[in-house]
Amino acid sequence: MTQVTERGTPLSVAPRAVGRRRSPAAAACVVGGAVAAGLGLGFLAVLVIVLWISSPYPDSGPGGALHLAAGLWLLAHGTELVRYETLSGVPAPVGVTPLLLVALPVLLLRRAARLGSASEEEGEEVLPAGAVFSAVLCGYLAVGALATVYAAGGPMPADPISAAWHVPLVAVLAAAGGVWAVRGRPLGPVPDWMPAGVRRAVARPRYALALRAGAGGALVLLGGGALLVGGSLAWHGAEVQGSFLSLTGVWSGRFAVLLLAVALVPNAMVWGAAYALGPGFALGAGVSATPLGFTGSPALPRFPLLAALPPEGPGTPLTWAVAGVPFVAGLAVGWFAVRRAREVSYGETALTAALGALVCGLLMAGLAAASAGPMGSRALAEFGPVWWATGAAAFAWTLAPGVPVAVAVHAWRNRPAFAVDDGWHDSGVRELRWAALRDAAGRLVPDLDPETPPGPAAPPEARPPAPGRTPAPSRPPVSAPARTPAPSPAPESAQPESQAQAAARPPAHASVLAPSPAPESAQPESQAQAAARPPAHASVLAPFPAPASARPEARLPAAGPTPAPARAPGPDGTAVPAPASAQPTGRPAAAPFPDPAWAPGQGAASGPAQAAAPAPPRRPRKVAVMPGLRLDLLPPKPSVPPLEVAGTRVLPRRKPPA
Length: 658
Description:
This protein is mostly helical. Helix content is 43%, strand content 5%. The chain has 18 helices and 13 strands. It has helices spanning 23-54, 62-75, 99-117, 129-151, 160-182, 196-202, 206-235, 237-247, 251-263, 265-277, 317-320, 324-336, 346-371, 387-413, 427-440, 499-504, 527-532, 608-612, and strands at residues 81-83, 92-94, 281-283, 288-290, 293-295, 313-314, 383-384, 567-569, 575-577, 624-626, 629-630, 643-645, 648-650. The strands form five sheets. A five-stranded antiparallel sheet has the order 6-5-4-3-7. Strands 1-2 form a two-stranded antiparallel sheet. Strand 4 and strand 5 form a beta hairpin. Helix 12 crosses helix 13 (346-371). It is extended. It starts with 22 loop residues before the first helix and ends in an 8-residue tail after the last strand.
């Protein structure tokens, strides 16, 4: 048996799915979260070390300063610290978190989440939002756990139970905000596992308006609280200055007190807002400060912000006046709760305002809980506003004026429009204005009434001459003859026109806007009147003839008698004047304008019979305003030389314009 092995082209192996490994990107996100926590720790460590170095009487070495920095970093997340070195020997918790310190870890962690979600190169794959969130959170919480363990050996260690939920809570909120911001702040659909009624309710625009209204009301309350704190500090300026100077005598200690007071300014704003709402804030067991009065005798340490508290005793009209702050907040909630749409009902607007008041109450309750905390044991176990009382008061104060204001603003924005009868837009006045404009424009403006049937344009009415001007002699009309093989013969009573009348008659193209026909008794004009007559193209845009002294041709010296224009006999024996270009007038002659409705040999007979015959409707002719200027925008067509046959000029036939 022979074994034959044939070697050929090997079969192609199916390519394995080669994908970019995500472990380097995920590791980078983990490192980013750890770096964010390290930057926060490093900032506080540098600040504490600088103050320790500048202090003339340090209590401990650099190790104690670093332990204190780790404790302050945990305090910035809301973790309670425990102070064991007390006069009574009982450990005293310190749980009042400076809200300005919270901004440090929030901004750093948010920035780390944004950097992990963005791609530096064009072809680099971006991690999903969930992967970035988890990786950054793992790195940050790992450093937080190490900081908690390290701070336990310092003078003010952190409470492990408090750190176990405060640090992750702040980290989750900050990382989620960073990832959501880098994704474009999408408001995705509600998950399918939620009830259909909840999904439909959340999809309505009232909730976005309620969030905006509630945030606006909370900002107004915080602004009012800041005004109250600032005014109280200015009112008790002497006490504030004395407490600040009495705490320490060295500049490093005063600088530390100043930094602590600045970090507690947001807390003071929340306390001021709670004071304006009514519940006020607690300064220990059985001690509270409200607009109605200051009850109890507090055992407070000397501190600049605490020196600005209202005096003990019942309230005064000055303290009662702070009720205007929550009232203005209610107006703001009602204003921002109105939706700019006419299809929204009044009930929908009122419900949106009520939801905005609820959002404002929840925000103020959360801020009150974050700004309060214990400052010790026994008498100082309660320090700050009560969160549930502050939230309820904020909801009630913003709900009472907010709903009526929202309904009133909605009614005002959707009020019906009232017609204003000013007489200017009246139909009759409008028609009169249009008629006056049409008369002033020389019948160039069409009639306003579209029901008037089109017909031959009536000649314009004769206008009286202006005072102080010599009226121009009337000119015989030159009516456009009908397109017939031969013109109608003139009546026997029509006398042949004289030489002066033939010279006074304008060319055919100047009769587009000519005035009304002259009466039969018009006398032929003299030679001086013929010389003073303006050119034919000047009557198109000039409603009245200019005086003789204003014409340049009237001031020219007369070289001699003006020769009579040449006339050619027409078919009917009447004299046809020569074109205007052939008449010696002493000025440049206007270029001849071809008229498709006129042919040589057709004389313009004058007389009552000829003027009374109605002219058939024809297309409007182009008007030459002045030599070399045309009203139409089309380029002039090349002129065709006339053809002379046996002494008769025959113009070539032109097609009418389309």
